[in-house]
Specification:
Layout: E1 2-7, E2 18-25, E3 31-36, E4 39-40, E5 45-47, E6 52-54, E7 58-59, E8 62-67, E9 75-78, E10 83-89, H1 102-112, H2 116-129, E11 145-151, E12 156-162, E13 165-170, E14 174-177, E15 189-190, H3 192-197, H4 205-209, H5 212-218, H6 220-233, H7 240-247, E16 277-285, E17 290-293, E18 305-308, H8 328-339, H9 343-364, H10 370-390, H11 398-411
Antiparallel strand pairs: 1-2, 1-14, 2-16, 3-8, 4-7, 5-6, 8-9, 9-10, 10-11, 11-12, 12-13, 13-15, 16-17, 17-18
């Protein structure tokens, strides 16, 4: 489950293209942010998650966020200001067990393309000529099709697919997508079969291709309605802090993660019927070439840290897996799971301190130097260490144990 937002220069406060995504995964599916510089290649093919693809002579520098076991990217950006994210959508077309993951398509496009239109056409070519497929989950079979938002400093597009059928639209002001098809008859480009279908009266892309049952239980429509309304209400005021607020949002006041819902943009794990949580978050301010990542789960409990292509740095740590270990993602995850025992008791105090740190980092990020990224991590680590000591004596409730005990045991984590 995921949510992606984009606001174009004509709609934002400072005339910048803003892209953002919450990447929602299973709770133990750690996600890694990594910077990959430009590279020359001699091999003929590149090995992806499940299959291979023709290699090119040179790939561009990019930063991505990916589940620990996947070659591709949930989201990312490259040195030319191209940024892409995908969401799973549930359609009535056959899902292939073998094929190219939407996440692998993102990485391929970021490595090879300089602008949104070229990336759009490249992904469409893959979908039509290679096909999308493969499981998007490490723990179990999870087959789906993909929707994408693709943006550069000037243009942005939404691309929605169902098998090899697709429709795309240039985004004029703002847009958001989640785990449900959104385009009706308002697309600008489409595959030949879709164009043929559109000649029938009342053709609607989303209605025609959606799997209503899976779409309903994913609650993507509710999250998309929420993010779309938040963007609409922010016309002329949207900036990076405004987008951070959206990504940290819950649908209800007095939110309690032990009574969570798949309707929340900031998603918390809640058991078998609420199996996802936000694993990482990205905001890209493309005009200033500043890319913000939490590098950890649950944005309401996280601080966004900046990444700059002008001075690229992100901490390189030991290999991340689905097991608890001494790296940043898992250290933060331990804190998040501990904090949620008594979330309601501490959240207002925590948010006040979190926001004070975030404001400092937003101001420092104007310098655009790797030392600011390092300092941001240091500030958050100190902040989290303080809070771990503060909540150390909080004991898991029966309800918490019922939701989290098995998941924590699988990760090798003792709360």
């Amino acid at each position: 489950m995921c949510d992606i937002l984009v606001a174009t220069p004509k709609f934002t406060r400072n005339g910048s293209m803003l892209f953002a995504k919450n990447s929602d995964r299973e709770p133990n599916e750690a996600q890694k942010v990594e910077y990959i510089p430009r590279k020359k290649h001699e091999e003929n093919y590149v090995n992806m998650t499940y299959t291979s693809f023709p290699q090119v002579e040179e790939t561009y520098a990019f930063v991505l966020s990916r589940p620990w076991w996947i070659w591709g990217a949930e989201m990312g950006a490259n040195e030319f200001g191209l940024t892409i994210g995908n969401t799973a959508v549930f359609t009535n077309q056959k899902k292939e067990k073998k094929g190219i993951l939407g996440m692998d398509m993102i990485r391929l496009a970021l490595e090879r393309k300089r602008n949104a239109k070229d990336a759009l056409n490249f992904i469409i070519d893959i979908i039509e000529n290679y096909g999308q497929g493969g499981s998007g989950s490490y723990e179990h079979k999870f087959l789906y099709h993909n929707s994408f938002i693709i943006a550069d400093r000037k243009e942005a597009y939404v691309l929605e697919t169902s098998g090899k059928n697709w429709a795309a639209k240039m985004i004029e002001k703002f847009y958001s997508i989640s785990n449900a098809l959104t385009l009706s008859d308002d697309w600008d480009f489409a595959s030949d079969p879709v164009v043929s279908l559109s000649k029938k009266n009342n053709f609607n892309f989303a209605k025609h291709f959606s799997d209503k049952l899976y779409t309903h239980f994913a609650h993507g429509k509710e999250r998309r309605d929420f993010t779309y309304k938040m963007l609409e209400q922010g016309e002329g005021r949207i900036n990076v802090p405004y987008i951070m607020k959206i990504l940290r949002s819950h649908q209800t006041n007095n939110f309690d993660p032990l009574h969570t819902s798949m309707k929340n943009v900031c998603m918390h794990y809640g058991g078998k019927l609420k199996p996802s949580q936000t694993a990482n978050s990205q905001i890209s301010d493309l005009s200033s070439d500043t890319h913000w990542f939490t590098g950890e789960s649950i944005p309401c409990l996280s601080v966004f840290k900046p990444f700059f292509f002008a001075s690229p740095f992100w901490p390189e740590e030991e290999k991340i897996t689905n097991k608890y270990s001494n790296n940043f993602w898992w250290r933060a995850e331990f804190f998040h799971r501990k904090f949620q025992i008594s979330y309601a008791k501490y959240i207002e105090e925590f948010k006040k301190e979190r926001d004070e740190i975030q404001i400092k980092i937003l101001a420092l990020a104007k310098i655009k130097d790797k030392k600011i990224t390092k300092e941001s991590f240091d500030m958050e680590i100190e902040f989290v260490d303080k809070w771990i000591k503060k909540i150390a004596k909080e004991k898991p409730t029966t309800k918490y144990q019922r939701i989290w005990k098995k998941i924590n045991m699988q990760a090798g984590m003792h709360i």
